[in-house]
Design goal:
Elements: H1 4-17, H2 26-31, E1 50-54, H3 59-64, H4 71-83, E2 90-94, H5 108-124, E3 129-133, H6 135-138, H7 145-155, E4 165-171, E5 174-183, H8 197-210
Parallel strand pairs: 1-2, 1-3, 3-5
Antiparallel strand pairs: 4-5
Helix pairs in contact: 1-5, 4-8
GO molecular function: 4 iron, 4 sulfur cluster binding; deaminated base DNA N-glycosylase activity; metal ion binding
InterPro entries: UDG_Type-4/5, Uracil-DNA_glycosylase-like, Uracil-DNA_glycosylase-like_sf
Protein name: Uracil-DNA glycosylase, family 4
Length: 211
């Protein structure tokens, strides 16, 4: 498999980080007979059309060891089915590939700790279109100090869920250019955007095919 050694190395890095993460939900992993030090990454084909970047896995992802399969993930998959997007067209990632206690956002420190290994995983993917789910996923690109101001400014735009954010990342010494397309987090708790989420994701998938 292309990039398999890179993937294995990145997964080992993440596994080594797990015991020191501040809010790892060890009880959830044990409840489902899973190893809390095993990062839950979906990944996919290097030539996948899109990268889906979420915040972190939930309990159902831990239980089933599949990405984006819990209640919020089912809303994403429903739109995929409607638009005709298959799993083979996606490269699945999260900003922290471990479940946090109480599904609370990971600390900035935890996100920074995981980022180098995640960049290695992202390097395996050859695409450019990244759809981010929620604020934490989009602002992952602002962990790089050079990008932080631009990321924050874009997030304040009233049309952020329709506009596209061009950015670049230096990965293993190579500059890669990406087009980041944020959508709201599909959680039912996100009352302000829950009703609009399907239409916004649908538009993102259809628009990306037009480029």
């Amino acid at each position: 498999m292309p990039g398999s050694s890179t993937i294995d190395g990145a997964l080992q890095q993440l596994a080594a980080l797990a015991p020191g993460l501040d809010c790892l939900d060890v009880a959830c992993y044990h409840r489902h007979g899973r190893d809390p030090c095993m990062p839950l990454v979906g990944l996919g084909r290097p030539d996948a059309r899109w990268c889906f970047l979420g915040r972190d896995p939930g309990e159902q992802e831990v239980r089933l060891q599949r990405p984006f399969i819990g209640p919020a993930g089912q809303k994403i998959r429903a739109v995929m089915a409607e638009v005709g997007v298959s799993e083979d067209e996606l490269y699945w990632m999260n900003t922290v590939p471990f479940k946090p206690i109480g599904n609370k956002p990971w600390s900035m420190a935890a996100r920074r700790q995981c980022r180098p290994a995640l960049l290695e995983l992202l390097a395996v993917w050859k695409g450019t279109e990244i759809i981010t789910f929620g604020e934490a996923a989009f602002k992952w690109f602002g962990l790089d100090r050079a990008q932080r101001q631009a990321v924050e400014a874009f997030w304040q735009r009233p049309d952020k869920y329709e506009a596209r954010f061009a950015t670049s990342l230096c990965i293993s010494g190579v500059e890669r250019h990406f087009m980041v397309c944020p959508v709201p987090h599909p959680s039912g708790a996100n009352a302000a955007w829950a009703a609009r989420f399907p239409g916004l994701l649908r538009a993102r998938l259809r628009d990306a095919r037009a480029y």
